[in-house]
Amino acid sequence: MNKVIILVDSTCDLSPDLIKGHDVRIVPLTVNFADESYHDGVDITTAELYEKVASRGELPKTAAITIGEIYALFEEYIEKGYDIVYTGISSAMSKSYENAVMTAQEFPEGRIEIVDSQNLSSGIGLVVLKAIEWQEQGKDVHEIAALMRETIPYVRSQFMVDTMEYLHKGGRCSSVAKLFGTILKIKPIIAVREARMSVCAKPRGKTQVALDALLDIFREDASNIETDRICVTHSMAEESCAYLMEKVKEIRPDVPVIEQKAGCIISTHCGPGTIGILYILKH
């Protein structure tokens, strides 16, 4: 049986420490300003991204991994004798999945599994961390992919968006919605369910009101979550992160809570201050 390598795009927002020493490789997606391109987490950080947005007054475009890029990766590991599990941002949010599926057809049948995460950020990362466990148990590429697909519907991801500016600049809300959202101090909570994002709550007022609304959603699920780990993932929201981690630990003191920082792809679309609680339900 061949060794298995897990390839996952940078929208998984996994810190290097979590995958160090494992057969996992993070594949950076690209952020493109008018005259400059950067690889997420390689030659640009989230802080640098926000500095560029502030100085330029415009958001960059984010780009899916190209067929050429993914072909080179697949070829590299197939030639090394690995079987490959590839996953990344939801197929409903990017062409990366489609490009990977097309490219896999150019290689010997049975050597590559493409898994649609139906999620983003640590919603992907949590499944990859489970996949590492299965990988280390000696499961083959098809078993790992099947277990990932079985787990994915039980992932819960919800984020509080602190500013509507980035949603507006990115074309995800109208000028009228942004105006009223700003005036009313709405901080929408966005949930990822069945591969798509939707607004599940619209708390108004201070940031802590929205954080408490996020915690209310978590409480509803708290008795039914897996005990591996809970992620609190944020984009430059250290104070909010400290508050949520403390409260989450109070609610489920038996489950490790880990902080994860959103990379440039997720941050481009959600903006600074965005923060979420992510976990997997028992199944």
Report the uncertain regions.
168-184
Q: Report the sheet with the most strands, covering strand number, pairing sense and barrel closure.
A: 6 strands, mixed
Instruction: Assess the beta-strand content as a share of residues.
Output: 15-25%
Mass-distribution shape: globular
Distance between the termini: 29 Å
* Rounded Rg: 19 Å
Task: Give the topology string: H per helix, E per strand.
Answer: EHEEEHEHEHEHHEHHEEHEHEHE
Properties at a glance:
four-stranded parallel sheet; 283 residues; 13 strands; six-stranded mixed sheet; 40% helix; alpha/beta
Describe the structure.
The structure is a single chain. With 283 residues, this protein is α/β, with parallel strands linked by helices. Helix content is 40%, strand content 22%. It has 11 helices and 13 strands. It has helices at 16-19, 46-56, 67-79, 96-104, 122-136, 141-151, 165-169, 175-183, 207-221, 238-251, 264-270; strands at residues 4-9, 24-27, 30-32, 37-39, 61-63, 83-88, 112-116, 155-160, 189-193, 196-201, 230-234, 257-261, 275-280. The strands form 3 sheets. A 6-stranded mixed β-sheet has the order 10-9-8-13-11-12, sandwiched between helices. Strands 2-1-6-7 form a 4-stranded parallel β-sheet, with helices on both faces. The longest helix has 15 residues, at 122-136. The radius of gyration is 19 Å and the shape is globular. Mean pLDDT is 90; it is low at 168-184.
